[in-house]
Structure formats: C-alpha cells, structure tokens
Write a structure and sequence with these properties.
The complex is a heterotrimer of chains A (98), B (122) and C (665).
Chain A: E1 2-8, E2 11-20, H1 25-37, E3 41-52, H2 54-69, E4 73-78, H3 81-89, H4 93-97
Parallel strand pairs in A: 2-3, 3-4
Antiparallel strand pairs in A: 1-2
Helix pairs in contact in A: 1-2
Chain B: E1 4-8, H1 12-25, E2 28-32, H2 35-42, E3 49-53, H3 61-69, E4 79-83, H4 88-96, E5 101-104, H5 109-119
Parallel strand pairs in B: 1-2, 1-3, 3-4, 4-5
Helix pairs in contact in B: 1-5, 2-3
Chain C: H1 5-30, H2 35-55, H3 58-75, H4 83-105, H5 113-133, E1 165-171, H6 183-193, E2 195-202, E3 220-226, H7 231-237, E4 246-252, H8 269-280, H9 288-315, H10 318-341, E5 343-345, H11 347-364, E6 368-373, E7 378-380, H12 381-402, H13 406-411, E8 418-427, E9 430-437, H14 444-453, H15 465-470, H16 481-486, H17 493-502, E10 506-512, E11 516-524, E12 529-537, E13 540-545, E14 549-554, H18 557-563, E15 568-571, E16 574-580, H19 581-584, E17 596-602, E18 605-611, E19 613-621, E20 635-640, E21 646-650, H20 652-664
Parallel strand pairs in C: 6-8, 13-21, 16-18
Antiparallel strand pairs in C: 1-3, 1-4, 2-3, 5-7, 8-9, 9-11, 10-11, 12-13, 12-19, 14-17, 15-16, 17-18, 20-21
Helix pairs in contact in C: 1-2, 1-4, 2-3, 3-4, 3-5, 4-5, 9-10, 11-12, 12-17
Classes of the chains: A alpha/beta (98), B alpha/beta (122), C alpha+beta (665).
Chain lengths: 98, 122, 665
C-alpha cells in the first residue's frame, strides 16, 4: 500500500494505492490521521485501491468521523470497484456521500 | 485475479482431491507436504488462505500455525485446520494459537469449498 | 402445545405435502429411477416430519420418521423402487393424511384404536423393507441432517413457523480480523444463501481515534434476511466465529397474523381444535401482491369517484348528485374495508423480542423482564414489517444501556429486576408504540455538553427537557462514543429516527434521570389513503391529513399585520407558533385579501399554518414523490385530485418541528 499526498493551501488530496487491508492498517491509520491533522479539507481518491477489508472500511469511517469532530471537510472523490462493493455491502455508501 | 490457496497435508491423495476441486472452482493452489515444506514454498508468495492438516511429519500443523502467527507477512492469513474428531486436545491448542476455523475429516469437496468461501471473498 | 394458527398452518402445509408425496409416487410408477422425483418425495416427507416435530404432533412425527428413513435409502439407491413399494408408500400417504385430518376434526387421538392399529401395521411393513434391503439394523437413528432443506429446530418455549424471513444480529469479536476472518466475507457468503433485505452496520463501538486499534474489529450488524435455508444452514455461515462473536438468528413468523387471537387461557383442547376446523373454511391465504393490487385499484376508484363528484357538482343535476353521493359512500366503505385487510396485530412482532431480551439478560447477567401490552393493536402490514428493526435498536439500547446492573439498582432502592415495557395503542389518527425502561434515564448535562461540543447548540442557550432529549436523534450524535459510554444512549438513534420517518412516523423520547426513559413512536394508521383537508396557496393545492387538523380560523387583520414581524399568533389567549406556507414554498403571487390559519396538532404540539384558501375535505390517495423530490421540506407526498390536478400532501410532523425551531431563533 502507498499513500500519495498532494497539498495545496488547506486542501490535502490523498491517493491510496494498493491494498487497504489489515497488513497495512497500522500504517494507513497513522497516515490518514497525520494528513487530516495538517489540513482543513481532506479528499481521498480510492480509485487505485486493489483490495479493501474491514480494517480499511473502519479507517475510512474513523477519518470521516474525526473530520466532522474537528469541523473539517472530508470526502471520497473516487472509488475502485473493490471499495465501492465494500461500502455497498455494509450499506454505508450514503453515509460517505453525505 | 485468482486467489491462491495453500494446502498442507502429508497425504498426497488428500492434496490431490482438494487441489482438483479448488482448481476447478478457479483458485490457484500451492501444495505442501508438511509445515516445513510449506514455510519454504510460501516465501514471497501472496497467499489468501491456508488449509492445514494437524498431524504431519516434520513440522505438524500446530507448530506451523504458531510459526505463521509470528510471521509479519502471513500472520493475518486465514487458516482452516483439518482434523479428525478425536483430536479435541489439539483443537483447543490450535484455537488458542489463533486458528478458529476447523473442518473435520473426512469431508466432501463441496464442504471444503463452502468453508473456504466463508473466509475468502471471491 | 400451541393450538393457535401454528396448528392450522401445520394442517394446511402437511396436506399439501401429502399431496406432493402422492404426485411424486404416481410419477415414479412410470419413471421409477427419476432422481428429481425421488428427491421431491423425500423432501415432502422430511418437511412433514420436521414440522410435526415443531408443532408437537408426535404420532405424525413418529410415523413419518420411518417413512423418511425408507425414502432416505431409496434416495441413496439402497432400496429399489418397485410397484409394491409405491403401493405401500401410497398407503403411508393415506395414513398421514388421516392423522392430519383427525387434528382438524378435533377427534381424540387416543380414542381411535383402528387408526393406531393401521399405523402399526404399515410401520411393520416399512421396517421389513429396511431390514430386507440392509444387512445392518434399521437406520432409525441415522442422521439425515445433511439433507438440504428443512432441519427445523425444536425448542420448548419458542415454537415458530419459519417463513423464510430472518433477523440476524452480529457483533464480531475484537480479534476476528487478526484471526484472518473478515465480516465482509461472511456477509458475502450469507448473501449467496438468500437475499439481504436490509443491513445496518453498527459502528458505534469504534473508539476515539487515539484508542482505536486498526487491526481490531468494532463492527456489529443487524440484518434482515430472506432465505429458504433453515436456521442451521444460516448458523453454519458463522460457524468459524460462533465461539467468539455474539450471533443471534431469529426467525420472523408472520403466517396467519390476520386471524383474531384464538381464545386465550386454557379451554378444552378439543374445543379449540373444533374451532380450527370451523375457521379453516373461513380463511384463505392470499398473496400480498394480490392484496396490494386490489388496494391500488381502490385508490384509483377513489380518484375516479372524486372526479364524478366534481362533475355532478358542476352540472347540478339533483338525481345525478344523489347517485354520486351514494356512490361516494360505497367507495368510502370499500376503501375502509380494503385498508383493514392489510391491518395485522403487532403482538407477534412484540413477542419475538421476548427472546431478544432473554438473550441479552443472559449475555449481560442483568435480570430483565419484558412486559408487553397492546399486542392486539393493528397496524398496516407494510409498517409491521419495517418497524422490527427500529424496535430492536430501542430494546437493545434499553437493555444494554438503560437498565443498570442489579447491584447498582439495589443500591438505588430499585428492584433488582429491570423492566422493559412494549406498549401499543391508537391515538387520534396515529398508532403509538412505546418502548420504556425503568433504568437510569438520559443524562441531561452530558447531552448538553456533547451538543455544545458539537456546535449543535450554543453555550447559554436554554432548552426544554424535550428539546434536549430530541438532540439524541441528531445524526452525528450517535457516533460519539463518549455519550454512548456515559449516558448510555445514542446508539444509532438517528438511524431509528430515519427508519421511522420513512414510514411517515415520528419519534421522541421522554426521560427522568434515575427513573427511566420512554421512547414514543407515532405511526400513521394507514399507508395508502388518507382523509385530507385541502387548502390553497397561490395557484397550488395542498392537502393536510384531516386527523391532524384541529380548527380553522380567519387571520385577523391585527395578527396579520403583526405576523409580518413575528411568527406566532394569539389563539384563545395562548401563543400559537405559525408558519406562512407562502413563505415556506416561495409563493410569489400576490397576497389575497383574506388569509386563513389552519391549526394542526401533532404529538401534543399545536401549530398554525397560514394559507390563502380553504377548500374542504378530500380523500387523498398518497403517491410517493420520486427520489428527486424526496428532500423537499414540508411535503410528504402527492395526490391526484378528481380533475387530474396534483396536490401536495403536507408533512405536518415536519412542519410542526420547523415552526418550533423558528420560534427558538
């Protein structure tokens, strides 16, 4: 898994590449939270994610919740088929679009 | 992309039956005849699930399990342990070591496939 | 033994299965090796045995068990299908049929030695087959559980007719992901066994960012599942996690709900069975789709009738007017009756929570009693189907968080046993369902703090209890782990609220700290047709559900002038908040010389709606607005008037809320 960050003023755009699975969960959590801490608006591009398991889902949820606690903007700007199918199965697609 | 499953059993005929059924369903299969053989063959491979017999020469299933749980690359890989009903003590030991899925021998290929499907996404 | 609709269902089902067996046997006469037919034959016998076991019809179960054993061997090719065997099996069908018939006739089984003798003799012949064809002993104890289909569970206190609808609650262990197992794959597998009709992911347990372990699993799921699989098959999906995870799989049984409850207490069984026999002829099972089509047609009829009514008014022909009004009365009558057909008592939905509460009691070690009342209150079938989930949430909340541990309760001078009450009753135009507990109640100051922290309210803002407790339904409030832990509330309450609102209902909570909390759910009486009161604003028509209208007033000039500056008026000396629909819907056309106030009431709150014109009562067939219009504030649906024009149905609960909020500002 690789996280590419692109920063512009307060906006931070993250592109996650590879597997959002348990092996990478610790690293991903840190990366997501660090980036959130240093921006006012966080955009995540999931289009290059090849696998996502429940740890990946939980981290997306955590960051979205954390962002709203900190009054920051969070959005997912694109999905890969894998990430979309996880959100659909968990019936949480609307949650991440709201 | 096809998922890769490793079958570890000292009986060649069991490996063959399982392997044929798995390949027919679309899985890639790596066969190993005991724990030691398995550790050697898995290095560098992406493995999605391990089927592992308990009673084997060289390195038995429980030792293999414990060693896998120490391995950064494979410690989260789902494992199904294959056992006969009489091995209750082994089963408890294995569960404590982190193997929660057990299938009792003899099993039919369909039973094995449905057990695998419960753990690995298609 | 339960002798209510369960027995009746058993009789119907078994008669059908005996028929199925006969058909299969007759088919086997021409093609004795046909596997599908043999399997069908086996399944039918298997089902009869299984359900006889559940319902407690021992003689049927015992007899069919032997039949099943023979058929099992036929299936495995160990016994050959011969003409003689078919003849014997047909005799078996007749015998099972007679045993079932006796049940509906209410004859005393013990008093029928002939039948018993007949059964004994057939059983001997069957056993001869088993012995003749097999060297070992008859496989009477042989486990036939592996057979796909109907392994039914027998539990002494919870006999249910499985209808293929299940509710599955899952709470995964923290370690499940580390053990290499993912809820995703189990649920994906589950979806192959049937249809996941609804799924709610419970994420409240995900802790604050600092404490959250990314490798731990914090999720739970509430799943509505439709499948023909039996409970065991569904349980088996989770076999690898069953030891470490909380799993409950409940069959939802809805068969024959429409029947009035059979005489309570314990009259003579024979009496009851006779009553069944009598009733058997009076009830038929109808596909709900057929019913819905019928109700749709009635809806169209109402519209067409309104049209005729208008034409008649226009033509002013007296005899036509008379006929039209006679027709109206009939249509109204048909409408009411059609709606009643869909109404079923909520009791059975309530009853299934007994098991839930019992399970929670056992898991948490708390002693909790569920007290049910108002079970015969009737609701629309569609509503009943959808209310289960929100109720499940609320009851779990009460049991998990509301009710204190026994020693804590004793220290507070409360009885050690906690009580959760489920109650339902009808109240002007609504059905009210209450879930209450005698636990610790909501913690005002915690909610206040959290709301301020979240910026939902401003510091210094003072809120009534009611307004305060309403905050727990705010989205985002529920995700706050701290609130959940400390005040013990807020678990998915926004989801509960949303579910109820999609049923055009509303929810609120009343709480007394240390004494307990009560959640009130208000639901509309019917889903499809309402009596409405039509008003006009500008060129448009709006319909207000009639049972929420309290009175209509003309807006006095003084109030009118004043109302431009404030949004409340004086009603019989009391402050009445009101809403100008023209402002709400951005009506640009000029203000008419007179305006009217329609006073509506919802959940104890009165609000005035300022409109241009009053048009009087109408019957409105509710058409749902498409997705696009779903979010329009203040409107809950649309209806088509007799002349084809469209009127919007006002969402009174929503408007009352809006008016309340505006007053605060």
């Amino acid at each position: 898994m690789k996280v590419n960050a692109e920063k512009n003023n307060g906006l931070c755009r993250l592109q996650i590449e590879g597997e959002m699975t348990i092996s990478a969960a610790t690293e991903l959590k840190k990366s997501l939270l660090d980036n959130l801490a240093n921006c006012s608006e966080l955009e995540i591009d999931l289009s290059q994610v090849s696998e996502m398991d429940t740890t990946g889902f939980q981290l997306l949820f955590l960051v979205k919740r954390e962002a709203s606690l900190l009054n920051k903007v969070f959005r997912i700007i694109s999905h890969s088929p894998k990430t979309l199918s996880v959100l659909k199965l968990y019936n949480m697609k609307d949650f991440f679009e709201s | 992309m096809a998922k890769t499953i490793m079958i570890i059993d000292d009986s060649a005929s069991i490996r063959m039956v399982v392997s044929i059924a798995l390949k027919k369903t679309g899985y890639e299969v790596i066969e190993a005849k005991d724990g030691k053989d398995a550790l050697g063959k898995m290095t560098g491979q992406k493995i999605h699930l391990i089927l592992c017999d308990v009673n084997m020469p060289n390195m038995d299933g429980i030792s293999f399990l414990k060693s896998i749980k120490q391995n950064q690359n494979y410690k989260f890989t789902p494992i199904i342990m294959l056992t006969t009903e009489s091995q209750e003590a082994k089963k408890q030991e294995g569960k404590a070591a982190g193997a929660k899925a057990w299938v009792v021998k003899p099993f039919k290929p369909e039973q094995m496939l449905s057990a695998i499907e419960k753990l690995v996404l298609p | 033994m339960k002798t209510d609709p369960v027995l009746q269902t058993f009789i119907i089902e078994s008669s059908e299965n005996v028929q199925e067996m006969e058909n299969s046997l007759l088919q086997l006469e021409t093609s004795p090796d046909d596997e599908d037919t043999i399997n069908a034959l086996f399944r039918a016998a298997h089902t009869i045995k299984g359900s006889a076991g559940i319902v407690g019809i021992d003689n049927v179960e015992r007899f069919t068990h032997i039949v099943e054993n023979v058929l099992e061997q036929v299936r495995l090719g160990e016994i050959k299908v011969t003409g003689d065997l078919i003849g014997l099996l047909l005799k078996c069908c007749d015998h099972i049929g007679r045993l079932v018939d006796i049940l509906s006739e209410g004859e005393d089984k013990a008093g029928n030695p002939d039948l018993e003798f007949e059964g004994q003799s057939i059983m001997e012949q069957l056993t001869a087959y088993i012995v003749a064809d097999k060297d070992d002993l008859p496989s009477a104890q042989k486990d036939t559980q592996g057979v796909a289909g109907e392994r039914k569970e027998i539990s002494s206190d919870n006999r249910m007719v499985e209808t293929g609808n299940w509710h599955i609650s899952l709470k995964f262990s923290r370690d499940v992901l580390r053990d290499g197992m993912d809820p995703l794959s189990f649920i994906t597998y589950l979806s192959k066994l049937g249809e996941i009709a609804g799924l709610t992911t419970l994420h409240d347990a995900i802790p604050d960012a600092g404490e959250m372990d990314p490798e731990s699993c914090y999720l739970g799921f509430e799943i509505d599942f439709r499948s023909d699989s039996d409970k065991q098959t569904i349980e088996d999906v989770f076999e690898f996690v069953q030891e470490d995870c909380e799993i409950s799989i409940l069959p939802l049984h809805s068969e024959n709900k429409a029947d009035p409850p059979v005489v309570g207490a314990a009259p003579e069984k024979q009496e009851q069975i006779k009553a069944f026999k009598a009733k058997e002829a009076k009830t038929i099972r109808v596909d709900t789709n057929k019913l819905d089509q019928l109700i749709n047609m009635v809806g169209e009829l109402v519209i067409a009738n309104a049209n005729i009514d208008q034409q008649a008014q226009r033509i002013r022909d007296n005899s036509l007017l008379e006929s039209a009004s006679a027709l109206s009365r009939l249509v109204e009558d048909i409408r009411d009756r059609a709606m009643k057909v869909r109404m079923v008592p909520i009791g059975e939905t309530f009853n299934r929570f007994k098991r839930v509460v019992r399970d929670i009691s056992r898991n948490t070690g708390k002693d909790i009693e569920l007290v049910i009342s108002g079970g015969d209150t009737e609701l629309d079938k569609g509503v009943i189907e959808k209310i289960g989930d929100p109720l499940m949430h609320l009851i779990r909340n009460s049991a998990d968080h509301g009710i204190e541990e026994a020693d804590e309760r004793l220290a507070l001078n409360k009885p050690g046993k906690g009580t959760i009450r489920l109650n339902a009753f009808q109240e002007t135009g609504s059905i009210v369902i209450e879930v209450s507990d005698d636990g610790r109640g909501l913690n005002r100051s915690r909610i206040m703090n959290k709301a301020m922290e979240r910026g939902i309210i401003n510091p210094g803002q003072s809120l009534s209890d009611r307004e305060m407790y309403d905050l727990i339904f705010e989205p985002g409030f529920s995700t706050a782990q701290k609130v959940t832990k400390v005040s013990g509330r807020g678990v998915g309450m926004d989801v509960v609220k949303r579910n109820i609102e999609t049923l055009r209902g509303s929810v609120d909570v009343e709480s007394h700290e240390g004494v307990g909390a009560t959640v009130h759910i208000r639901l509309p009486l019917t889903m499809a047709i309402i009596d409405g009161f039509m008003v006009g604003v500008g060129p448009l028509f709006y319909v207000i559900p009639l049972d929420m209208v309290v009175e209509c007033l003309e807006l006095s000039e003084a109030d009118r002038q004043a109302s431009l500056k404030r949004n409340y008026a004086d009603l019989h000396g009391k402050v009445l908040p009101f809403l100008r629909l023209r402002d709400l819907f951005n009506e640009q056309n000029g203000r008419p010389p007179y305006e009217h106030v329609v006073v509506v009431q919802y959940a104890g709150r009165k609000t005035g709606l300022v409109v241009d014109e009053l048009h009087g009562e109408v019957q409105a067939v509710i058409k749902s607005l498409g997705r696009v219009y779903k979010d329009i504030k203040g409107v809950s649906g649309a209806t088509i008037l007799g002349d084809g024009t469209v009127a919007l149905i006002l969402d009174v609960p929503g408007l009352v809320q809006t008016a309340k909020r505006m007053r605060k500002v």
